[in-house]
Amino acid sequence: MLPNKGPTGRGDRWSRLLGVRTSWTTVADGTFFCPGCGGDRNYERRTGHRRFAVLGIPLLPRGTTGPVVECMTCQERFGTDVLDRPTTGRFAAMLRDAVQTIALAVLAAGGTGARCTVEVALSALRQAGYRECDEEQLVTLVEAVSVDTGRLPGLYGDSGLTGFAIELHEALEPLAPHLAAPGRERLLFQGARIALADGPYTPAERDILATVGHALALGPEDVNRLLTEARTTPS
């Protein structure tokens, strides 16, 4: 049988003789959540230099490419925006911090005088991973953080945001883009249940819970719905 001399055969031959080769340089490394593997993996951030090659030998520069993020496990390359997604470990820490900040803010707004309120908050914290926290530690932490945050007048103009409200935005806003709506709603609902443990919402508790909803990118209608559901749902 005669060798293939059609267009495809000639094209394959030319691609072996002439082409563009990319040499990669690693500029950083670390751990990221790999979309290809579906878990935390090591990565290298790389930039490339493109060169026209003859017989596989790079000759003429053809510019740069990248940067890209290359997974060291599956070898797949991604845009650098993949690093915006937190690793599994980082996400878990952000979620724990969110639960703690909401619980402290609600307790500071409604007070820690009612033991039932503290117990509901403790239950939420232990479920989030703070298993060693006890009632005395929680009350002491609320008092200490309340003194530390205080009120920060003028920082947000005339909005009247307290230090706790600012803490809520700092803890929740980075988490919100990575949490589905049911997860964000659950965080607000959990805070509402803490507020309701000793009776109806106080104005201060409503203000704090509204701030939680806003920081979690929940609209006012969703916030009102969840606060009503928390009030009517048996504990």
Whole-angstrom Rg? 27 Å
Unreliable segments of 5+ consecutive residues:
1-6, 151-161
Number of strands: 4
Judging from the principal axes of the Cα atoms, what is the shape? elongated
* Number of discrete helical segments: 8
Mean pLDDT over the full residue set: 84
* Distance between the ends: 82 Å
Helix content: 40-55%
Strand order of the largest sheet: 1-2-3-4
Secondary-structure element series: HEEEEHHHHHHH
Provide keyphrases for this structure.
4 strands; alpha+beta; single chain; 235 residues
Brief digest:
With 235 residues, this protein is of the alpha+beta class. Helices cover 49% and strands 21% of the residues. A 4-stranded antiparallel beta sheet has the order 1-2-3-4.
Task: Provide structural commentary.
This protein is 49% helix and 21% strand. With 235 residues, it is an alpha+beta fold. Helix 3 runs antiparallel to helix 6 (181-196) and helix 6 crosses helix 8 (220-232).
Annotate the secondary structure layout.
Layout (H helix, E strand, L loop, with lengths): L6 H11 E17 L4 E16 L2 E15 L5 E2 L9 H23 L4 H14 L6 H15 L13 H10 L8 H16 L6 H13 L4 H13 L3
Antiparallel strand pairs: 1-2, 2-3, 3-4
Helix pairs in contact: 2-3, 2-4, 2-5, 2-6, 2-7, 3-6, 5-7, 6-7, 6-8, 7-8
